[in-house]
Specification:
Layout: E1 2-8, E2 13-20, E3 25-29, H1 36-45, E4 48-53, H2 65-72, E5 75-79, E6 93-95, E7 100-103, E8 106-112, E9 121-127, E10 136-140, E11 143-144, E12 147-148, H3 153-156, H4 163-179, E13 187-190, E14 208-209, H5 210-216, H6 220-225, H7 228-236, H8 246-255, E15 267-268, H9 271-280, E16 283-287, H10 291-296, E17 303-304, H11 311-318, E18 327-331, H12 335-346, E19 353-357, E20 370-371, H13 376-381, E21 385-390, H14 394-399, E22 406-407, E23 427-431, H15 436-447, E24 452-455, H16 458-469
Parallel strand pairs: 3-4, 4-5, 5-6, 10-13, 15-19, 16-17, 16-18, 18-19, 20-24, 21-22, 21-23, 23-24
Antiparallel strand pairs: 1-2, 2-3, 7-8, 8-9, 9-10, 11-12, 13-14
Length: 475
């Protein structure tokens, strides 16, 4: 048996290729939408991708199940569990608890493990060449290394009410009835690693084991004691903010992401063409430089998504495909760099990238508006300032913020504008911890018509200034 992990550092997301080398048949689990990596991997090992599946309806990225099946002729499998509201809307084979996919001597068994989502499946792998029972588990967003998939995303991202409690109880049952019923030696390969908002405290390890989690996981004592209420309370406490674009991901994954096929080459634009497109509203620039360079001067109205880094997430924070009418232009050194950026973009459904610009030379640049910590109070007192906005995660905000600051995390600002004053109410002063997230959020709000000023150095800079002044830290 062959088991290969394909990891996307951008979204902290893992997909897997499982194969029987003797038969040459392969299955891909939880593929992303830019599928060349799987085609190349299969070719390198001399394999045929005959099946594609996913553990659940993802919220943080667009699934590549349809795309890969269409490109290879493989059979697409999706969960048939979870009830009527959680069925996929496109043609695919439905998997139910206990169903199997056979790849030569390798058997892949689906187990229904609801909790993170109602339809969630875990896949148990049995290498029939050496064993007659499962030795590996692909747990998706059920069990991570050191953590569990959060059960509150339906409330946080989709707008449902109080599903977190039922989800937490389902997770408790799934752990007891499926996960902990497995032998300790079973190796666990989760769908996400550290940095993903799909859990509270995911470990950075690529895998774990049933025995290790049974002994050392934070949830193990509550399971050992059968204390469901304790488990629910501990699980729901301190979950991170869910990004605003997650609702769109759920909807598109359920409907079936639009097939991309072979993408056309990205055209190289001249500064003159970009300038004309910016003026008539047909083009929008995505500035991929570091925050410090953007603050030294950028194209007015440009979106800021510093690369490398969390390109896909940041782009999804500041582009709403349902509202964006302009074609997107990437600031990139060459076509290869621009194409790599586009690969990240399609993972979150931002498909409108049509070209790239290699340099900002000859374009009129201006620095985004900023305010120094020493001048913050004076600007806040100005009648034209409507809001001081902390765009960090709510746990960071709760641990200490600038007195009087409102909170709306950077991944939500574009999609929760009902929580902001209208643009005509006055300027917003934005900050995060270091300036990166507030730079992304501020650029999105400016493009949406808001007057946004960024706090120089953000909260860290303000804290250093406060300490020099000898002022007490905020409660």
């Amino acid at each position: 048996m062959l088991l290969e992990r394909i990891y996307d550092e951008d979204l902290s997301q893992a997909s897997y290729l499982v194969a029987c080398q003797s038969s040459g048949e392969a299955l891909v689990v939880d593929p992303r939408r830019d599928i060349q990596v799987y085609l190349d991997l299969a070719a390198r090992h001399g394999l045929r991708i005959v099946a594609v599946t996913e553990t659940h309806l993802h919220a943080d990225f667009l699934s590549g199940t349809r795309e890969l099946a269409a490109a290879t002729g493989a059979t697409a499998y999706v969960s048939g569990e979870g009830g009527e509201d959680w069925q996929y809307d496109y043609a695919a084979e439905r998997l139910h608890d206990g169903d199997r996919i056979v790849l030569g001597k390798v058997t892949v068994t689906a187990r229904h493990t609801p909790g993170h989502t109602p339809e969630h499946l875990t896949f148990l792998l049995t290498d029939g060449a050496v064993a007659d029972e499962p030795g590996y588990a692909l747990t998706g967003d059920f069990v991570f290394a050191g953590d569990l998939g959060r059960p509150d995303l339906l409330d946080e991202a989709v707008g449902m009410q109080d599903t977190r409690f039922a989800g937490a109880r389902q997770l408790f049952a799934s752990l007891r009835e499926v996960f902990l019923a497995l032998p300790d030696h079973v190796q666990v390969f989760p769908g996400h690693g550290a940095g993903s908002p799909c859990g509270r405290a995911l470990g950075a390890l690529p895998s774990t084991s049933v025995g290790y989690e049974r002994r050392f996981a934070w949830w193990a004592p509550a399971l050992a004691d059968g204390d469901e209420e304790r488990f629910v309370a501990e699980l729901l406490d301190g979950q991170p903010d869910a990004h605003g674009y997650f609702a769109r991901m759920k909807q598109q994954n359920q409907a079936g992401p639009v097939l991309l096929g072979e993408l056309p080459p990205l055209r190289a634009l001249t500064p003159e063409v970009l300038a004309q497109g910016l003026e008539d509203g047909t083009l929008a620039l995505i500035d991929t430089r570091p925050v410090a360079e953007v603050h030294a001067g950028t194209v007015p109205g440009a979106l800021s998504t510093p690369a490398p880094g969390a390109v896909a997430s940041h782009l999804a924070w500041c582009v709403d495909p349902a509202r964006e009418t302009a074609q997107l232009v990437i600031l990139a050194a060459d076509e290869a760099s621009a194409a790599a950026y586009r690969d990240h973009a399609v993972r979150v459904g931002v498909d409108g990238i049509s070209g790239y610009l290699s340099s900002l030379d000859s374009l009129p640049l201006a620095p985004p508006a900023t305010v120094a910590p020493a001048e913050l109070e004076q600007l806040r007192a100005d009648a034209s300032t409507a809001l001081l906005l902390d765009v960090r995660n709510r746990s960071e905000h709760a641990a200490g913020t600038i007195p009087g600051a409102a909170h709306l995390s950077a991944g939500r600002v574009l999609f929760r504008r009902d929580q902001l004053p209208p643009p005509e109410a006055g300027r917003i002063i934005a900050f995060c911890q270091s300036g990166l997230r507030s730079g992304v959020a501020a650029s999105a709000l400016r493009r949406a018509g808001y007057d946004v000023v960024e706090l120089e150095g953000s909260y860290a800079g303000w804290s250093r200034w406060r300490d020099v002044q000898g002022e007490p830290a905020p409660a």
